[in-house]
Amino acid sequence: MEENQGVWVFIEVNDGTIEGVSLELLGAGRKLADKLEVPLSGVMLGQGVMPLANEVIYAGADQVYVVDHPVLKNYRTESYMKGVCVLAEKYKPEIFLYGATPNGKDLASAVATDLSTGLTADTTMLDVDVEKRLLEASRPAFGGNIMATILCKKHRPQMATVRPKVMKALEPDEGRKGIIIEEELELREEDMRTKVLRIVKDVTKKASLAEAHVIVAGGKGLGDIQGFQLIHELAEVIGASVGGTRDVVEAGWLKHEQQIGQTGETVTPKIYFAIGISGAIQHVEGMKNSELIIAINKDANAPIFDVATYGIVGDAMEIVPKLIKQFKELSKEKGGEMSYV
Amino acid sequence: MHIVVCVKQVPDTKIIKINPKTNTLDRRSAPAILNPYDAHAVQEAVKIRNKTGGTISVLSMGPPQAVAVIKKSVEIGANQGYLISDRAFAGADTLATSYALSKALEKISKDNPIDLVICGKHAIDGDTGQVGPGIARRLDIPPITNVIEVSEVNKEEKYVHIKRKQIDGYEVLQSQLPCLLTVEKEINDIEYAPLTNMINAARYEPVIWSVNDLEDVDKTQLGLKGSPTIVGKMFSPPKLEGGKRIEGNPDSQVEQLMGILMERKDLLKLKTANS
After folding, report:
1. CB atoms A148 and B164 under 8 Å
2. What is the ipTM of this complex?
3. Are strands A134-141 and A13-14 parallel, antiparallel or unpaired?
4. Which of A43, A95, B36, B103 could form a disulfide with A7 if both were Cys (CB 3.0 to 4.6 A apart)?
């Protein structure tokens, strides 16, 4: 176990671009590596990914392991797992982080099984006990009512998947120097039991929440599906995207992909309206990094007010229609439509 | 086709309460239910079996009362069920859980080879989604996670076509059988069970295996002993810095809010006909 050293980040590449969460993890990994006084490495697999290696270094890595191979063109558990396991067994990292994306979670689970080590899912806070060289990976547990710190004392590497948009990426520094290590890997297409037949991008969906500048989100406090129409109306008037809590999705007021929170989307808009949302940590985890949060709720003690930049204690049924009216008048007066920086 | 669905009994996390003094769970506060994603997994197995014929087995690990989720699965349409229940399994993390379940699957497969394993995307109490891929690795079959549609099952040529949810869309994959799928909720709607299923379920008694009923088991890989991860501590989520309250009557509150928004030109600007 003592021979395991260094912090690793799996660099997820989709469509020739590094996923944002991988850059965020390099930022978080940098802090862990500095505390432990070990190098930070990125691990990047794919086809034609070599030109991206410098970006990994600019984002904070000391070195990048690259496996460039035609079989790795698209993500598949079998091929990626093999590549990552070969590298981990050869270089023995002590901490290994992955983005909690569909592919990152899939890969980390398979790798953990093969390396027979511990894996913490959907981490939202990372720290390290330098003396014991223990990764402290904390995550909301039991539906988000409580945080749990998970430790992996006797197995290495210590692995965790980390939610997108909860850690901060460093400003890219193009002056940063690092080492790029290209690894050869024997992979044969005929050994693969799965094939990617087609990749279908749904750009509208991504733009609608994860990349929205303004989000109007509603919770059970709106009473019923009719009350929830106010959310759609306000969003319509100001050109925002609509989201909601797990409760409203389960009640059928919104589609699954509009759920914001730990088990739904993580969002970071400029402005987030939280209306009739009490603010369970499970939801808060998915929206707390929004720039300006405006909460409207009847209950003065609702935890959402602990997160909100501005809070209005009041009845959404009364406040929101007035807000809609104001925005309508404003856009009429100015003779244009709303848009955001 | 022999389809095995792995299911878990979970506390309903929407209802579960935390003791604020001790930061521990009051498990008695929450009713035990079939993990909602697993219900979709069973429903999908029923859909596939209705096309291809064959048998659906369900497998669970848990205390004796977990037979309830196997009965529930039979109500949805599974043919038979197995529960592995033993103190030796207690305290298992995802690595130890996938080991125990894979040993049970190996035993089930001896009598009737398994073509397809289906799991829910994750359990709502653990939220990890790690057990499914773990089982697949241990059985050395391909895992396909985040499945939103099973579009083709070809049992003669032994392959499936599935749609897998991705960050910004989906992908269509072909996999050889046997393989393991973990399914999202949008894959199907849970249908009302016919009365005959309900009667079958009420009468059904699943097979219960202890650790000694399984074969070639390395007991050091089970339960707490076989779990590399432990919970170090539990704590209340950190208090975030609350902001300003906007006081006054509703008209004044809305007016103040509009003022604030208009001042934040860095976040919001009006695209107007004149500007």
Report:
1. no
2. 0.89
3. unpaired
4. A95
